[in-house]
Amino acid sequence: MTSMTTPKQTETANADVLAPIYKASGDPLRLEILRVLRRDTFGVLELSQLFDMRQSGMSHHLKVMNKAGLLEPQREGNAIFYRRPLHLDSDKLADQTVRQIFEMVDQIPLPQHLQEKIEAIRNQRADQSQAFFSRHAEQFREQQELIAAFELYAEPTAEVIRQRAIKQNWHTGLEIGPGEGAFLKVMAGICDHVVALDNSRDMLAKATRTCIEERLNNIDLIEGVTDTLLARGDAFDLVVANMVLHHVPSPADIFLDAAALMNGGGCLIISDLCSHDQDWVKENCGDLWLGFEPEELTSWAEDAGLSCGESLFIGLRNGFQIQVREFWKSSGTS
User: Fold this and answer.
1) Count of Cβ atoms closer than 10 Å to residue 27 Cβ
2) Boundaries of each HTH arsR-type domain copy (predicted)?
């Protein structure tokens, strides 16, 4: 015998699905938590610090929001961070509702005091990463190759760039976080002028030596962060970040800043780790994040107004996987 669902029963079922979502979001604090998680990922202690509340109270709010599908946990080694859901199905009523809540809450500007606290947390993360590279600048290659040999991601990334360069008229290039400068030879051979940007003086010194040895005369090495170049008003046709995102305090901001630094029709190429659970890399390699889901990069790029191009995934014997991703800025965007 076939069971039939009446329209009234369907309406009740839909109400049962929606009620927990609206109940979980019906609190000003929780809406502010969703607001600060728009692009960032924070741990319980960080969120407690942001909102001046005890960890137990924050954990309760996060548990309720997680159960309602408004956020999801992300394990980073022994720590749990929280982010907005990566997978929202446009055909599901619950996911449509969650997406609408995000769209509405994102229209509310963050209070100045929250912006300042978020910046303080990012600075703490940046100091942690910078301190690691200051201590281990001389062993950078050895440390990095604990995860992946340079050639394993540099060659595929270079091949993607060379293929695109055949049809593109790239004059200016930017490499964010050049490390020892091993990839700058590729950049210098494609663009007339290249900027190498790094916030580690020790790493820039090694990149400078590489440029001298390789006779790369069209490279401008700058100590600083992307804000440094934005303040100068620089603009580039090609931006590259090789194995950099997992070292930066707010990876999503790299996409926003790269988009702002790119000329119309420009291209952003990123190679980085896929999400993994090998937390030893935090201590041994200075990683802040244990890789990224491809959907995270896609979401951050779209949020920055960039469109996705080709994707390449490289599996490594030690269990890591590298993603090489291509993102484009509309030619009509300045």
Assistant:
1) 13
2) 10-105
**Who contacts 33 (Cβ-Cβ below 8 Å, separation ≥6)?**
47, 51, 61, 62, 65, 71
Query: What is the DSSP secondary-structure string of 262-299?
Result: EEEEEEEEEEEEBP---THHHHHH--SS--B-HHHHHH
16: enclosing H helix or E strand: helix 7-25
Asked if 243 contacts 272 with a C-beta cutoff of 8 angstroms, the reply is: yes
Better-predicted residue by pLDDT, 14 or 83: 83
Mean per-residue pLDDT for 267-296? 89
- Cα(223)–Cα(177) distance, integer angstroms: 10
Tell me the HSE value of 173 on the side-chain side, using a 13 A CA sphere.
Answer: 25
The Cα 132–Cα 113 span in angstroms is 29
Lay out the sheet containing 79-83: strands in order across: 42-43, 79-83, 72-76
Q: What's the whole-number mean pLDDT along residues 248-262?
A: 95
Bridge pairing between strands 306-315 and 321-329: antiparallel
| Residue 332: predicted pLDDT | 72
pLDDT band (50, 70, 90) for residue 327 = very high
Domains, the chain, in order of start with CATH, read: 7-110 (1.10.10.10), 140-329 (3.40.50.150)
- Phi and psi (nearest 5°) for 310? -75, 155
Whole-angstrom CA distances from 280 to 78, 246, 285 are 10, 14, 8
Q: Are 291 and 285 in contact (CB under 8 A)?
A: no
Mean local confidence (pLDDT), 71-84: 84
SS3 104: helix
Q: Is 177 left (phi over 0), alpha (psi -120 to 50) or beta?
A: left
pTM: 0.75
Which 8-state DSSP code applies to residue 312? E
Quick check: helix, strand or coil at residue 173? strand
What is the end-to-end Cα distance of the chain in Å, rounded?
63
